[in-house]
């Protein structure tokens, strides 16, 4: 997952442990500097290749999650190319992370590969470091999109895996035919 020789910071190790201890299923990482929603994989399967499409086995689900956010965001869904993020307009405001630019050690890839959590990265605005007076507008531009995205937690398979006596089975492996990515039940 990380490059050879990569040192993992203590706070990163703590977040990794936390993510493995709680059965999260959906998350979003909020960044600034663009107007686009990216989804895994962020690291290209061919590390020497830049801008190479690198889908997960759950590509359709990730596209749906990213599109849910992008379509509810008034600026990302705006078809105008006269703004930052104009190069993502024809893509509907979403892109596979590695196809935009490949990097190792991202949260979305970690979550997908090592937990049950599906994560997208939301570039919430044109400024990498917005001024304080811009935060209110950014919040309002993203509020409904965040709420729509959070509602997606109800999509997909859900229920209780139990034994013949009705007792929940901890860490049961769930497989879906045609998708080579299993998830496990929580505690």
UniProtKB/TrEMBL annotation:
Task: Report the leader peptide range.
Answer: none
Entry annotation: catalytic residues: 123
PANTHER family in the cross-refs: CARBOXYPEPTIDASE Z, PROTEASE M14 CARBOXYPEPTIDASE
PROSITE patterns with a match to the protein in the record: CARBOXYPEPT_ZN_2, PEPTIDASE_M14
Classification via SUPFAM superfamilies: Carboxypeptidase regulatory domain-like (SSF49464), Zn-dependent exopeptidases (SSF53187)
User: Biological process GO terms, please?
Assistant: peptide metabolic process; protein processing
Highest taxon of the lineage: Eukaryota
Of which family is this protein a member?
Belongs to the peptidase M14 family.
Name assigned to this protein: Carboxypeptidase Z
Hydrolase in keyword set: yes
Which co-factor is required?
Zn(2+)
GO molecular function terms attached to this record: metallocarboxypeptidase activity; zinc ion binding
Gene that this sequence comes from: CPZ
- One Gene Ontology cellular component annotation? extracellular space
């Amino acid at each position: 997952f990380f490059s050879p020789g990569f040192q993992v910071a203590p706070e990163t190790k703590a977040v990794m442990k936390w993510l493995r201890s709680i059965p999260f299923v959906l998350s979003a990482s909020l960044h600034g500097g663009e107007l686009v929603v990216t989804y895994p994989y962020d690291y290209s399967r061919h590390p020497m290749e830049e801008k190479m499409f690198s889908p997960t086995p759950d590509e359709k689900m990730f596209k749906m999650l990213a599109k849910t956010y992008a379509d509810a965001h008034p600026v990302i869904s705006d078809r105008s190319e006269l703004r930052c993020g104009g190069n993502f307009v024809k893509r509907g405001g979403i892109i596979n992370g590695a196809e935009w630019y490949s990097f190792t050690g991202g949260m979305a890839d970690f979550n997908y590969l090592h937990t049950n959590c599906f994560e997208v990265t939301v570039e919430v605005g044109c400024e990498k470091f917005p001024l304080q007076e811009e935060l209110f507008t950014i919040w309002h531009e993203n509020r409904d999109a965040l709420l729509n995205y959070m509602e997606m937690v109800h999509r997909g398979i859900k229920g209780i895996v139990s034994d013949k006596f009705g007792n929940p089975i901890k860490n049961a492996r769930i497989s879906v035919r045609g998708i080579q990515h299993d998830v496990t039940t929580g505690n």
